[in-house]
């Protein structure tokens, strides 16, 4: 058994394949974040099955809020981006490269903060857009 988080994980994880296993993204601070990213709000684990089962923290990213992650890929199922909303925190959308955790979208400025978001908000991806629901509003983003 491996401890992967410093506390409870309360949202459903998002998973996506890589050539030598799978990556699993969840909201919460990782137990073994690389480069001392101890205040991370998003943790991504790498799970390998061969030659022997193995789990390790791939990367962590700082997110101010409590959203649920989602993953989008390009048309050829590559170039994964992990998206998460900083619900009840900075209330902004955040995007990270799925392979490295490098930020690709940092939420924009003050006008891009969404209103009425609640903990564990999950974004939806369809038709090339991302949608986030808040109290009485739907926000749409074109990544």
Write the layout of secondary structure elements.
Elements: E1 14-18, E2 21-27, E3 42-48, E4 54-61, E5 70-72, E6 81-85, E7 93-97, E8 103-105, E9 124-126, E10 129-134, E11 137-141
Antiparallel strand pairs: 1-2, 2-3, 3-4, 5-6, 6-7, 7-8, 9-10, 10-11
Taking the alpha carbons of the first and last residues, their distance comes to 37 Å
Helix fraction bin = under 10%
Uncertain runs are: none
Rounded mean pLDDT score: 89
Largest sheet: 4 strands, antiparallel
Number of strands: 11
Biggest sheet strand order reads: 1-2-3-4
Give the H and E element order. EEEEEEEEEEE
Strand content: 35-45%
What sort of overall outline do the alpha carbons produce when their principal axes are compared? Answer: globular
Rg for CA atoms: 15 Å
- The number of helical runs is 0
Specify the structural class: mainly beta
Q: Could you explain how this protein is built, in words?
A:
- The chain is mainly beta and 143 residues long.
- It has strands at 14-18, 21-27, 42-48, 54-61, 70-72, 81-85, 93-97, 103-105, 124-126, 129-134, 137-141.
- The chain has a four-stranded antiparallel beta sheet with strand order 1-2-3-4, with no helix packed on it. A four-stranded antiparallel beta sheet has the order 5-6-7-8, with no helix packed on it. Strands 9-10-11 form a three-stranded antiparallel beta sheet, with no helix packed on it.
- It is globular, with a radius of gyration of 15 Å.
- The model has no long low-confidence stretch (mean pLDDT 89).
